[in-house]
Write a structure and sequence with these properties.
The chain has a domain of 48 residues. With 129 residues, the chain is mainly alpha-helical. The N terminus is likely disordered. The chain is flat and about 70 Å long. A hairpin with a 4-residue loop joins strand 3 and strand 4. It contains two helices and four strands, in the order ββαββα. The longest helix has 34 residues.
Length: 129
């Protein structure tokens, strides 16, 4: 008997057409799922099902918080569209508060990337020649 043929059950051998059952898998635990005929796993165990559902919940939560963040950012932008006087070192100008906030956020993000790169470069392992 070949290694491949011992895992293949004839159609209907386990009582369900087109579903094979893994050798040694408990018959009472899990949910039957459709699998190809040469697959060695026929049942989704309780742990696999819980992992799959937990992953789905994480995706929904991620989507919910992403939409909530976008709504908050849009509301913040709409609420801060009025013009303000912005004082520079050598002068001043008038601009929308939204653009000042966006400029500061982008500047902070870029400075964070540069700082991280410098720290990583300064604390890297030294190469010995």
């Amino acid at each position: 008997m070949s290694a491949r043929s011992k895992h293949n059950a004839p159609a209907g051998a386990n009582g369900v057409e087109g579903i094979s059952q893994a050798a040694g898998a408990p018959k009472h635990e899990g949910v039957r799922r459709q699998v190809p005929g040469d697959s060695t796993t026929a049942l989704e165990t309780r742990g696999e099902r819980l992992r799959r559902k937990a992953h789905r919940i994480r995706l929904y939560l991620y989507a919910f918080f992403t939409v909530a963040l976008i709504v908050c950012l849009v509301a913040l932008a709409v609420a801060n569209t009025h013009q303000v006087k912005f004082s520079w070192v050598v002068g001043s100008s008038t601009m929308s508060l939204v653009w000042i906030g966006i400029f500061c956020a982008i500047l902070g993000w870029l400075l964070g990337i540069v700082t991280s790169a410098v720290f990583r470069w300064r604390t890297r392992a030294r190469r010995h020649h």
